[in-house]
Amino acid sequence: MKRLHIGGSSIVTGDDLADAVLEFASALYASGQIETVGVPFIDDGGVPQVARLQLTPALALWATTVSRDGAEPRDPDLVSSLRERSASLRRSTEEASRAFDSFDL
Q: 91 or 21: which carries more pLDDT confidence?
């Protein structure tokens, strides 16, 4: 499992979820966009919850590996969606960069 640190707080979620959120946040940063995503996590009492994270270019977000008993939060559909959206954002950002580079200044 991984602990996602966001702002002055953190949540413990599954490895795939944390990695997909970080990848999506990076793509959002590169494109200058803001999104809110619901991320399953386990609270300090071991109860499954969903955190609504607003991902912005100005937000410090990182993950650390944690050891914790119990089932790891998983959401394959969310992981897939975030990875697809990340790839789409990266393609759009690269296309815009190439278009900008083609201008003679």
A: 21
